[in-house]
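Consider the following assembly input.
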Amino acid sequence: MTDPIPTPLAPPPDILRCAYMELVVTDLAASRNFYVDVLGLVVTEEDDDVVYLRSLEEFIHHNLVLRKGPTAAVAAFSYRVRSPEELDRAVAFYTELGCRVERRADGFTRGIGDSVRVTDPLGFPYEFFYDVEHVERLAWRYDLHTPGALVRLDHFNQVTPDVPRAVKYMEDLGFRVTEDIQDAEGTTYAAWMRRKPTVHDTAMTGGDGPRMHHVAFATHEKHNIIAICDKLGALRRSDRIERGPGRHGVSNAFYLYLRDPDGHRVEIYTQDYYTGDPDNPVVTWDVHDNQRRDWWGNPVVPSWYTEASLVLDLDGHPQPVVARTDTSEMAVTIGADGFSYTRPEDSARAEAEADVLPSWKQGEYKLGHQL
Ligand SMILES: [Fe+2]
């Protein structure tokens, strides 16, 4: 870790959960079609410039804001806090860190009141709020549910160059690590962190950043995810599917990764596990274990490692992207010197021979091999 972020004396705000993401999209009609007509998110409110969407079990005004703009990017990662007073704590915490802090009594989006937005020490636009307009929770409205119904916002995933630096700051903010990916040399490639008692509210993925890797919505069951794949096929829009469906090693969840019309990545996710006890065990994965990202050992496409969305500062300008200097997960698992194994006892041989997987089952894409 270089240049660690100091721990503020001011206590952090008590965060409940990830609540919504504000996305800037370049073609509002195309994005509305993707999120509403294809994925079935519910429109709470909309006008010519903004669409406010929610999942079927949500009772707050929105989980996703689509805002028309010139550059596709993320304008806010927004968290709900436990009480209105927590906003004072957020202001004190980030002011002590020297961050830019902006508070609006009437909120930054419709349906939400007093809110604090900051550019955090990692360069991400973070928001905190308590006051919110309640809307109908559609959990019992099965007449509205589609076969691929999205029922909750589950998590964010952020790309940042120095994962341990990010984790230390997030722990100061009150998050707990549930799982991570490391190697024997002590490099950390990614970490999953939670406030609500699931595997995560956000994850830090090592790479050039600050960028947004994905936003994830939950379904009830695995078959709902299969139904989304079938629908995309039927619509001749399978090119929206980037990776999956599959079973994650990390988080044990069933997953699917899609790309929206601007390339923003959306994960559909279901059936991770309870993490709410104070002594919940941290799960650490070896970066060379080819079941960490996909439990069935299916390859991770290179775009999944390299591509991500820009994030904005509080004036709406894209944040400059800083390159990762630690080795990348793709390089150590895919490149000419990369290797993976399926069984831990094969680890040493995999490193020596750089490949112990059968040629037809390279646990990851080998550049120049299958591409
Ligand atoms: Fe995810």
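The radius of gyration is 20 Å. Ask yourself how this observation constrains the way the partners meet.
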